[in-house]
Every structure is written in structure tokens, then in C-alpha cells.
Amino acid sequence: MKSEECAAKIFLAARYGSDPIYEPLGPGKPPDFSVDKNAYEVRRLNERHTASPSVEGLEQIAISLSRAVREQLGQIPFSSEKGSWVWSVRFRRPLAKSCRVIAKEIGRQATGFYSSGGRNRHTVEAHGVAVELIPVKADLGKAFVQVLEVDDDSGGPVSQIYTDGIRLALAEKIKKTRAITVRFQGWGLILVDYILPGLPLRDELASLAFDLQHFNTITIINPDGSFAMEWPDVRPQDRAP
Fold first, then answer.
1. pLDDT tens for residues 146-165?
2. 71 and 150 part of one domain
3. How wide is the angle at C-alpha 46 spanned by C-alphas 40 and 49, nearest 5°?
């Protein structure tokens, strides 16, 4: 069972008061879970979508920079008392220094900040590269976990990344399950948030509308299985199929 499916199992067990059935129609076949007459499909919400590639290859610098910063922040020992943070990196071309030099300075600043024990949103900067550190309630087992990169030549706001990710996931699951819709009374899509666990964008996302088709709900949960958001705010069994 994948980590996102484990999180969904925890969530469904807490919601219904009993363990859901895993792959009720057989191994590898949708849906991922069923509870009573309701079916649930599960997917990670962590896909990143960028603008069309340019002749310079926008992703090349992003990959190298993110890898270098991730390696530095990954060396910071996790403390359950200081908690977990997610981070995003923003940069603009051309980089003033090498990825290694930039990442080393980012790591030095982040180490000092983490050691201070503060839990307020914070940004560290080095040679024109900014890394935003965001505290999350969920215990991710690491001090810092990357959620996204913002390339000033191609990126977009985090709320748009959520919107695009949700719609693409929904379209994928609708296509995958269309042939078996009648086998269950209700359908729910569970998305496990690996972008910003704790979802500080609740107000921005609450008004979103989606073409659910045969799905009754979209639910976002955190990696620990705790509830984050739902559209609409009602359980599948409370609606007509």
C-alpha cells in the first residue's frame, strides 16, 4: 500500500468508525477503497506544472538548484519539538553564484533559524535566491520538506498550483472510473496534500468549483491522514448518486 493510500485509510477509518476495504474489485483495479456502498479513489497532490519549455530549458537550473538546496536542508537534524517545515525556492536567471554556493549559504541560515525554535513563516535569501520556510502542523519526520519551486521565468502562485493539480487529478480519476460508476452508490476523490500540508490557503481555495461528474466529493487530507478541506462539505453517502 502506497503512503498516500495509508493516509487515506487512516482518514476513512476515522470518518466512518471502521476500516475501509482496500481494492474491493481486485488488486490494481479501481477504486482504491470502499466503505459500505461508497467508493474512494486516492492520489497524491504534489504534481508541478510549468509553462512551455523555452529554448534555454527552464527546468535545468531549477533541478540543479532545488537538488542543491534539498541536500543542504536535508542535513538539518529533525526535532519533534521544533517540528516540520515545508519550503519553496524562488529564483531568477541568471544565478549570481553557483547552485552549490547558494545552497550552502541557504543551509547555514536555515540551520540557525531552525535552531532558534521559532514557528513563524520566514524567508532566507542568498545571492538573489529566496527560500521561504513555512511551518506545518503535520509531523513529516524531517525538519524541511520541499513543496515547490517558483521560477520567475515560468512559475505561478501556489493557489493556482493547487487548482491545476486538483483539476488534473479529477479528470484522470473520472476517466479511470467511468466504466464502473454504477457499481457504487457514491464516489469520493481523496487527495493527499504534499504541496503545503496544513493548507494555509483555505480561504483562497474554499470558493473553487469543480466539474465533479460522477464524483460526489473531493477531499484534501494531510500526509498523516488528518482532514484539511472538502468540496462540497458533505460526505458521499449524504448525497444522491
1. 876 555 554 445 667 788 88
2. yes
3. 120
